[in-house]
Amino acid sequence: MFFLLLFGFFPLLGKVNAQSLEQKARKIHESILTLDSHTDTPLLFNRAGYDFGMRNDPRNRGGKLDIPRMEEGSLDAVFFAVFIGQGPRNDEAHKVARQRALDIFLRVQQVVAANLDRASLALSPDDAWRLKKEGKRAIYLGLENAYPIGNDLSNLHEFYRLGARYITLSHTKNNDVCDSSTDIEEHGGLSTFGKQLVKEMNRIGMMVDVSHISDKAFFDVLDISSAPVIASHSNARALCDNPRNLTDDMLLAMKKNGGVVQLCILSAYVKKMPSNPERDAAMRAWRAKYSSFESLPEETAAVARAEWVEIDRNYPQPMANVSDVVDHIDHIVKLIGIDHVGIGTDFDGGGGLSDCFDVSELGNITLELVKRGYSQKEISKIWSGNFLRVFRQVEKVAMKGSR
Predict the structure, then answer these.
(1) Taking the CB of residue 215, how many other CB atoms lie within 10 A of it?
(2) pLDDT, tens digit, for every residue of 237-271?
(3) Which of 68, 81, 162 is nearest to 118 (CA)?
(4) Is 249 helix (H, G, I), strand (E, B) or coil?
(5) Does the 33-273+318-401 domain belong in CATH 3.20.20.140?
(6) Nearest to 242 by CA among 147, 150, 320
């Protein structure tokens, strides 16, 4: 009888311990400041049926993030990407890209203004904590791809005045600033103008984002920048051999620079995923049909996005999980320390995991960190402390240079 009782006790004990860990993780997650350094949610703001102030269905074109789900997932602050895909590189095309960026800035302002009781635009590192205490979500802005700047630094100053606090120097193609990690080498790193841009960003207090740029461009930035930099949504290449991720040498350079690597939860950057021939064929056909997606008229682009969603529905992509992402955190912490890692999901730009599909499930990341023995202080650093430290140091460098 004793052994029967003991046999029944151990599963009960395991269940109690699991509940205890979940309660501990929930308490930590709700008490600390949580910040996501990169989402593409503004892409949804003109989508029919989407309302940032309402709870949307992430599995029916509702995106991964809105205010109710931010509240459910206890996400306090988020950086919205003002994203402009790379197009032709000439004066007229740069003017068009600049105007498209301005339109997105205006649309974000309008959406936030319609929800001022629950969210507010944020400009400084301290705004995140202030708004959390007020029970509001902090909405920051970053420019993804320096393409709209063209070759004119006055555009940089304009975007800063509109609230942009970092710039991802390139996207999937080269621009006039630098080479992309996923394009053929052109500049050999940063261009001459790119070097000017980085120095001017240091001078005015704007964070330089090295996600998406080539390895040579990455090291050029770190050689030139007088302030710490960020990788707003990148992972460790040692665990997932993708050019979008950072090698161990790059991670060590980030430590020396004092920067921070914000872990992305886009599955293809987390681990090598199994092939899906039917999906691959459908995506090749989509790309052939919309080869110049970035320059499509908005009505055509909306149709293209709808067809992309339909492909996702018909041929669902295998997804990594939270444990896989925390493996990247473990690797980075072991290599360069707890002070240089954070979270940048890339929600609405491809980010999502099987057990963290949208913003409402972000607490699962904290739970996994608790399971692996991370302390509340360490988890707080990962969720916002490290990023905000860099944000403050970038501002201090600018203030010092202005004296």
Answers:
(1) 18
(2) 999 999 999 999 999 999 999 999 999 999 999 99
(3) 68
(4) helix
(5) yes
(6) 320
